[in-house]
Amino acid sequence: MAKIILQGIPVSVGIAIGKAYLLNRDHFCLGPIQNISEDLVEEELKRLDRGFNITISHLKELKSRIPSEQTEYASIIDSHIMMLEDPKLKNAINKYIKEMKLNAEWALEKGVRDIEKSFKGIEDEFFRTRISEIKLLSRKILGNLIGAGDELKPIRSRVILVAHELTPADTVEIDVSKIMAFVTVLGGKTSHVSIVARTLGIPAVVGVEDVENFIVDDQLIIVDGFTGRILIDPDDEEIAQYIEKEANFDKYKRELFQERAIPGKTKDNFSVKVMANIELFEEVSSVIDYAAEGIGLYRTEYSYLYRSKLPSEDELFEEYRDLISFMDSKPVVIRTLDAGGDKIGKGFEKLEESNPALGLRAIRFCLQFKSVFKTQLKAILRACVAGNGLLLLPMISGLEELKEAKLVLKEVKEELRREGKEFREDVPLGIMIEIPSAVLMAEALAKEVDFFSIGSNDLIQYSLGIDRTNKYVSHLFQPLHPAILRSIKYTVDVARKAGISVSMCGEMAGDPFCIPLLIGMGVDTLSTNPHSVPGVKRVIRMLSKKECVELLEKVLKNNSVKENNKLVKEKIFDKIPEELTFYTSFFAK
Ligand code: PEP
Ligand code: MG
User: Fold this and answer.
1) 165: Cβ below 6 Å to ligand 1?
2) Architecture per CATH, 4-25+153-254
3) How far apart are CA 490 and CA 486, in angstroms?
């Protein structure tokens, strides 16, 4: 048996067996708190300045090494340089040298702790990233203050990266081609590390408590990206077992890859389109590689993050236009900004929300900050001239909100006309159905739009009252809960009756246990991460619509999640080879 087995949240499938590389940026020792005399204050302030300046010049040097096409990474470094050049950060630290007579190292520690405190209670991912970036920068400054430097130890061979957290800035410095898997303490399904891992197609497990305390550099570990298990010092039997599991999965992936272009059509000829969800423009190559029939969801938030200022209309236009042209005539569903106000860096007041998931998010934010919304809408409408773009509004909760958004859309078109800019007048408009009130209002909403896209991630979160990022309640996040299935069924029925199309773009779309039920309901499109596309198509081909409808009818009579899970499992295991269930995120063995 392995010496220790840890459990985390699997966020990217696959198996890795290899040596650990600890990304430890906390190895500098501060020592006991040190006071300085009044006459040393000036000198200490200069020393701190020097620490900042060396760090800035290292960042500039790092930026010069980044290939020109990686503009996103370059802008992260720019934003770090700006943070260091912002007098507010230095003043918060200087204060401790001048007033408390602390040495530069301790002043840095205290100043950053103050900033951290002011961010406390804000659960938003953007702010968590911001504070972790400030901490990362402070560790670099500290390294330079004590003369230890701020460089990472070099990665010579392929390794499994173990870190407390992996920020975009870390990914800039690390040669990701040498990484076999990621393991982190912090992070969720939608955090940076998870997205990078899925994009690279390597396994990742996040939320592994205290992992850095159990693993040392070069220790042999196994990462199971299906179950979230981390085996430290595995024995020979376990290694053999996992080598086999890895080989089976690789073989299976190769097979799936070969049949990726075969469409998702059931045995009795019911066609379901299988599209891909992406977060970054760069992921478009995986969309093509895995033969997705379009982009079913482009989460546009990431173009707004890690920047010093908001993107301009032209910048967004170029990004969307390139994406749409790249996909040729295939559909590209561009979702407008689904982020809280506090996710949008500079130019906005920090929002003190005690409950950000229920706060000024997504469409609510856009309706509050109309100029941000209008800029994005203009860019989308203009870009759609290049091909088959569609517009999707997130988190619509009722009719008035939708009408208000449509009014802004109308205004935007008038402005574009006045400005003499070319745009597509008839871009199809859709809404996410991801709030219970939208389900209940589906009939009225359907009259106003061209399509529905069901977001099961949020629909489950808001219907069952389960924070989707909270690992303590993740076992209660139940897609086959009768209330969820009834909500989805009702939404699909309404869409059918209204003659509009309906897709599923939440995680349920990529789950072999949910797919039969979604087919039974008559969903037109399933949109999932690019790597899962061939697997989803295969599941569809293994089923008949008739049996899916029969299964759905049985399941809908049930009032119990357990019974539903059992019924569906029986059905699926008997139909689908076990390997395919590797792709499942909810019922991992
Ligand atoms: C969803 O809520 O299911 C969804 C697809 O949107 P996101 O995961 O971006 O909130
Ligand atoms: Mg959502």
Assistant:
1) no
2) 3-Layer(bba) Sandwich (3.50)
3) 6
432: CA distance to ligand 2 center in Å?
8
Ligand 1 mean position, distance from CA 457 (Å): 5
Residue with the smallest CA separation from ligand 1 atom 4 is 455
Residue ranges, CATH 3.20.20.60, the chain = 267-551
Ligand 1 binding pocket includes 438 (Cβ within 6 Å): no
Please say whether the beta carbons of 18 and 159 come within 8 A: yes
Where along the chain do the CATH 1.10.274.10 domains lie?
Answer: 38-145
User: Which is nearest to 3 in space by CA: 237, 232, 213?
Assistant: 232
Q: Are 272 and 292 in contact (CB under 8 A)?
A: no
Of 382, 375, 406, 383, the residue nearest 393 (C-alpha)? 406
d(C-alpha 259, C-alpha 263), whole Å: 9
> CA-CA distance, 46 to 113, in Å (whole number)?
21
Q: Measure Cα distances from 129 to 309, 345, 519 in Å.
A: 16, 11, 38
Residues 6+ positions from 132 with CB-CB distance below 8 Å: 165, 167, 186
**Residue 510 near ligand 1, beta carbon < 6 Å:** no
Handedness of CA 254, 506, 527, 393 (dihedral sign): negative
Which residue, by CA, sits nearest to atom 10 of ligand 1? 458
Q: Quick check: 206 and 9 in contact, CB under 8 A?
A: yes
Q: What is the pLDDT of residues 140-161, one digit of tens each?
A: 888 888 776 666 677 788 999 9
CATH topology (fold) of 38-145 = Enzyme I; Chain A, domain 2 (1.10.274)
Digit-coded pLDDT (tens) for 217-232? 899 999 999 889 999 9
Least trusted range by pLDDT, from 127-131, 133-137, 557-561, 584-588: 584-588
| β-bridge pairing 220-224 and 229-232 | antiparallel
Is pLDDT above 50 for 15? yes
Among candidate residues 80, 384, 481, 505, the one labeled active-site is 505
SS3 229: strand
pLDDT tens-digit map of 203-213: 999 989 888 88
Q: Report residue 580's pLDDT band, with 50, 70 and 90 as the boundaries.
A: low
Q: Which residue's alpha carbon is nearest to atom 1 within ligand 1?
A: 455
Q: Which atom of ligand 1 is nearest to the CA of 299?
A: 9
Residues 6+ apart with CB under 8 A from 264: 271, 272, 273, 274, 526, 536, 537, 540, 541
In the chain, CATH 3.50.30.10 covers 4-25+153-254
The answer to whether 505 is a known catalytic residue is yes
Q: Please name the residue that has the structure tokens 């376990």.
A: 238
- Ligand 1 atom at minimum distance from 394 CA: 6
Residue 375 near ligand 1, beta carbon < 6 Å:
no
Short-list 383, 386, 406, 384, CA closest to 396: 406
- 38: Cβ contacts below 8 Å, ≥ 6 apart: 101
* Residue 457 in contact with ligand 1 by CB distance below 6 A: yes
Q: Specify the fold of 267-551.
A: TIM Barrel (3.20.20)
Q: What is the pTM of this model?
A: 0.76
